[in-house]
Structure formats: structure tokens, C-alpha cells
Amino acid sequence: MKRTIISLGVAAVALMAALPAAAEIKPRIIRFGYGLNEDSLQGRGARHFAEELAKATGDKHKVRTFGAATLGSDMQMQNALAGGAQEMMVGSTATLVGLVKEFGVWDLPFLFNNEKEADAVLDGPFGQKLLDKLAEKDLIGLVYWENGFRNMTNTKRPINSVEDLKGIKLRVMQNPVFLDVFNGVGANAVPLAFSELFSALETKAVDGQENPVTTIESSKFYEVQKYLSLTKHVYSPWIMMASKTFWDKLDADEKAAIMKAAVSSREFERKDSRESTEKSMVFLKSKGMQINEVSAAETDRMRAAVKPILDKVKADIGAATIAELDAEIAKVRK
Ligand code: TF8
Questions:
Q1: pLDDT (tens digit, 9 = 90+) per residue, 75-129?
Q2: Counted domains in the chain
Q3: What is the CATH number of the domain that holds 320?
Q4: Ligand 1 test: best mutation among 147, 192, 216, 234, most atoms within 8 Å of CB?
Q5: Among 84, 90, 106, 182, which residue's Cβ finds the most Cβ atoms within 10 Å?
């Protein structure tokens, strides 16, 4: 009897040591929205975050995940976060450009050569500086996830060169960087929320779109698109955000627990993305998509074609910001 009580006591002490803050953490329900389907990188990453946060708070913080834009498009969710009507989300950075124009840097074509460069710049001081700018818009930028290198799909023809884009009605993300770049190379760019994209492709309101292969799979674009061209023209991050109204109610332990779970979800999701890319390609081929690589020479011609457009786009974002970014990338490449 005595021994049982002692060992129970030891177990309780051990438990308290494992969860030092749990006793003080208040119970909370966190509505966490995302735009892709539940079976997607965003869905799996969101569930990982929910599990990690439950562990870190002794089940006090309960994350309710809502996929497939059931809480609205990325832009609608951003507004809900800023207004305090929703607690958290993960989504595109492209739709933040209207709030903080510096976010346009992540949409610059051919900015990063590989994921390693992207991770270093996004997780470094430059990436953090952009996250910090969101507070004045009532948003808290927590961490970046990986959306990935974007590729083109369409129903008209394989894109082997920049000329092949001419006249293609292409859905683009809703910001001036994407509009200027794609219109600049001769496509007919149509800005549209991601949540409206599948039906726009299905009804042929647009001929094509561009996204990483993991999204082309999870959003079933292979059902309505024939050609997949591996252009890798932009590396897109995703951003995990909290409502500032919500964040300001939390005490330091709660913030630390959310940050820790957010960083864990970032690592989990990036690994998932990198492991899924090859599998998605095999899957898309099996669904009858016609896949083409773009030669190094043609990629160089694409870079040259966007160069004059980028000069204007970069001036709009701000010369000082671009200089800072370039310095960061140079540091990473050294
Ligand atoms: C896009 C993005 C999407 C995001 C997602 C729904 O094309 O690449 O991944 O908007 O959050 O809009």
C-alpha cells in the first residue's frame, strides 16, 4: 500500500516535470483553417500541429482543423484572423502582399536554386523581419512551411519555352507580382482565389494554372489538366499565422507552447513535402498527365525574359528590401 502511494507520487512528480507549464495553461479552442484538401501537405501538417500542441499543453489547447477552405479562402481567413474571428491558419504568402508589400519577394521567379537556400533565408533574419511586419496588420506570423517549386499545368500544350505561354489563359495568385510577370511573358493572367480554381479549370474558364506537384495531386487537377511542365519558376512558402487579438490574450507559457508546436509542424511538413514530390509525379503520370522537363537552355531564356519585368516589380517592392534579400541569398550561397 505504502509502496503504491510512493510510486504514484513519483509518477506524478515525473509527469509534472514533463509538463511544467501545463498546470497554468488555460483551456482554449483554436480554430485552424487551411485551403487545401484534408489529404494534403497542409492537412497533414495541421494535424501534426494539433497533436504537438495538445502534448505540450496537457490537452488544454484543443486545435480544431478546417480544411478545403471551409472557413473561407486564404484572403478571407486572413481577414478573419485580423478581425479576431478565427485563431489560426496556414496559407499562401501571396495574398498578404496587399497588406505588406514586402511579401512580394517570395513570388519573385527563380529566386532560390533549391530548398536549402529557401529554408535558410525564410528561417533567417530576413524572413523573420517580414513575419514581424504583420503585427501592425493584426496578424502574428509564426513560421514558414513549404508550398514548393511551382510548375505549370494546362489543357493546350506542353510548355517547353517561354513562347509556349503566349495566349494561355492562366490562373495566377492574387497579387501584382504574379500578374505583371505572367502578363509580361505573354500569358493571359487571371487572378483567382485558390478555392475557386478547380471549377474554373473544369468549366474551362481558364486553360491552366501553376502550383507544386503535391498540390496538383491533392487538389485533383489531373482530372481536368493534360500537360504538366516542370518549369520550377517560383519557390512558394506557406505561412502559419495567428490572430493578434487571440495572441495577445495568451501568457508567455502558452505562446512558447504554440511556437514550439509550430516549429515542429514546419519541420514535419517540409520533410513530408520533400518526400511526397517524387511520389506525386509518379501518381500524376499514372493518371495520364503528359509531363515534360524544361531544358537548362530554355530555363535560361525564361530567366532572361522575366528580367526586365522584374526590374519594375522589384522597384515596386522597394530597392532597400531587395538589397537586403540579395545579401542574405549571397550569404547562404557562400
Ligand atoms: C495558390 C497556392 C495555394 C494556397 C493554399 C490554398 O496557388 O499555391 O497553395 O493558396 O493555401 O493559391
A1: 999 999 999 999 999 999 999 999 999 999 999 999 999 999 999 999 999 999 9
A2: 1
A3: 3.40.190.170
A4: 147
A5: 90
